[in-house]
Amino acid sequence: MLAWAVVAGYVLLMGAGLGAGDFRLVAAGAALPMLWVSAAIAGLLRGRFAH
Amino acid sequence: MTVTVPTLPAPTPAAPKDTVAAPTPGTRALLAGGVLAGPLFLATVVVQQAVRDGVDARSQPMSLLSLGEAGWIQIVNFLLCGVLAIGSAFGIRRLLRGRPAGTWGPILVAAYGAALVWGGVFVTDPASGFPAGTPQGAPDPSTWSWHGTLHAFAAPAMGLALVGVCLVFSRRFLRLRRPG
């Protein structure tokens, strides 16, 4: 499931970014679920996941 | 004499039906706001990091963009994208009420939006050399302002809400046997 990969990516990038003090990684980690949620809502809008 | 009757594999049960009515124009507008919120927020951050003086994306959290002369751009970014996400929660609620992800999905999307609004209302404190003249590194928490302290809750709250949305929707997709 892509959602689980997104969550794993979020945790890994957040951990790596905060550990290394690199906020580009932190931002990339936050971007993953933000974009996934946008895509999921787009799916609802198009009816892809709604029926 | 024994007759062996070949048996066919049991048919795979069909995915559960979860038919929802086509969204009304109002619901579509709310959902479209939710689609826009994430990419708009991220694009606004990336552009500011590229063009604003003194910004170092490596050592400075994106919240610091709310400070300085052009800080209003990031504050509006937080507020606008938060409101769009909260609006989409109402759209999701309308569309999925009584169906998988119809309760926790909208609640968590609203929490994601509320965390963005929170981050815009309660502005962070200067840190990591931004704005110009601020000492490098993170300030001692004992010196944080009240709004900087409240701002610190925004990112973890948003992260938890987003992870929750992913898990709730993945459960929905699993039930409907759809990818995602």
Write a structural description.
- Chain A has one domain.
- The model of chain A has no long low-confidence stretch (mean pLDDT 91).
- By secondary structure, chain A is mostly helical.
- Chain A has 2 helices and no strands.
- Chain B is mainly α and 180 residues long.
- Chain B has one domain.
- Helix content of chain B is 56%, strand content 0%.
- Chain B is built from 5 helices and no strands.
- In chain B, helix 1 packs antiparallel against helix 2 (71-96) and helix 3 packs antiparallel against helix 5 (154-176).
- The radius of gyration of chain B is 23 Å and the shape is elongated.
- The model of chain B has no long low-confidence stretch (mean pLDDT 91).
- At the A-B interface, helix 1 and helix 2 of A face helix 1, helix 2 and helix 5 of B.
- Chain B: Keywords: Membrane, Transmembrane, Transmembrane helix.
- Chain B: Residues 1-21 are annotated as: Disordered.
- Chain B: It comes from Catellatospora methionotrophica.
List keywords for this structure.
A: 51 residues, 2 helices, B: 180 residues, 5 helices, elongated
What's the main sheet of chain A like?
none
The number of helices of chain A is: 2
Low-confidence stretches of chain A: none
Report the mean per-residue pLDDT of chain B as an integer: 91
Order of helices and strands of chain B: HHHHH
Sum this structure up briefly.
The complex is a heterodimer of chains A (51) and B (180). Chain A is 84% helix and 0% strand.
In terms of topology, how is this protein built?
The complex is a heterodimer of chains A (51) and B (180).
Chain A: H1 2-20, H2 23-46
Chain B: H1 25-51, H2 71-96, H3 104-121, H4 146-151, H5 154-176
Helix pairs in contact in B: 1-2, 2-3, 3-5
